Amino acid sequence: MRESEQSMLNAEATIEHITNWLRDYCTANKQRGFVIGVSGGIDSAVTSTLCARTGLPLLCIEMPIHQAENQVQRALDHIAWLRERYPNVSMERVQLTPVFDALVKELRSHEDPAVLSLSLANTRARLRMTSLYYFAGIERSLVAGTGNKVEDFGVGFYTKYGDGGVDLSPIADLTKTEVFAMAKQLGIIESIQQAKPTDGLFGDDRSDEDQLGASYPELEWAMALRDADTSVNVDALTERQRQVLGIYDRLHAANAHKWKPIPVCMIPESLRK
Fold first, then answer.
1. pLDDT confidence of 5, banded at 50, 70, 90?
2. Residue 8 pLDDT
3. Residue 190 CB coordination number (10 Å)
4. Are residues 77 and 67 in contact, defined by beta-carbon separation less than 8 angstroms?
């Protein structure tokens, strides 16, 4: 397993491909442009820049909920960077902290702090989704998703109907390593390229790796291994590789409900007679 393995992605050509795909999809569906939540992380920075490159209207929304100041500042810096380069970019700031706090006061608590913390983290993501779709409705625009391949289809590291509630997913076929390669090619500001990936949903400085138990390059290795051959000889793996594969398999199974189609209870024809 090579944690520092470099992507072989043709970043320049991929940028053009996604930009054209975004523009074509938006115009074919008779929408004006895009709405995106900007978090100060690498995925939203890359996705918003790709949307901006289409030339169609892009509304960037910054939605802090008890957010760490460095995350807020990176988001604002990125939006400012975008607006200097693309005249089609505008922004809104929505202070969701008081909305979240008011909602929490009305919700029943839970005796298990870990369960409560995760549920509230997902609630933050769903409040943001609601805000994005409000603006998408009044702007006649599409909500652009920021999930990458490992998060969306590998370990399911996102909130169902939160950051997973989107109209289209421009970077969902890119690994995190490839997203970083795209960021470098696009010239995304250095503070975002250097920042530790985090979902920012807990109001502290925990990283994605802290939550997942493995780095993105490690999870990319496990995902590629499983995609190539589900019957892996674990005896040939190092202790760390076995740990990472176990983490990947557990999360992939536990979160399969996120990417599988919503199950529909089909009614037998015999019940319609």
1. very low
2. 87
3. 10
4. no
- In terms of Cα–Cα distance, which of 39, 99, 89, 88 is closest to 63? 39
Cβ neighbour number for residue 89 with a 10 Å cutoff: 22
Report the pLDDT averaged over residues 73-95: 97
- Contact call for residues 2 and 221 (beta carbons, < 8 A): yes
Going by their DSSP bridges, the two strands 89-93 and 58-62 should be labelled as parallel
* Residue 41 contacts residue 200 (beta carbons within 8 Å): yes
pLDDT digits (tens, 9 = 90+) for 144-182: 999 999 999 999 999 999 999 999 999 999 999 999 999
**pLDDT for the residue numbered 75:** 96
What are the structural domains of the chain?
11-259 (3.40.50.620)
Give CA–CA dist 270/45, Å, rounded. 53
Q: Who contacts 60 (Cβ-Cβ below 8 Å, separation ≥6)?
A: 36, 38, 48, 79, 82, 89, 90, 91, 92
In sequence order, what DSSP letters do the residues of 227-252 get, joined into one string? Answer: HH-SS--GGGS-HHHHHHHHHHHHHH
Distance CA 10, CA 75 (A): 27
- Residues 7-58 pLDDT 10s: 589 999 999 999 999 999 999 999 999 999 999 999 999 999 999 999 999 9
Buried b (16+ CB within 10 A) or exposed e, 28-47: eeebebbbbbbbbbbbbbbb
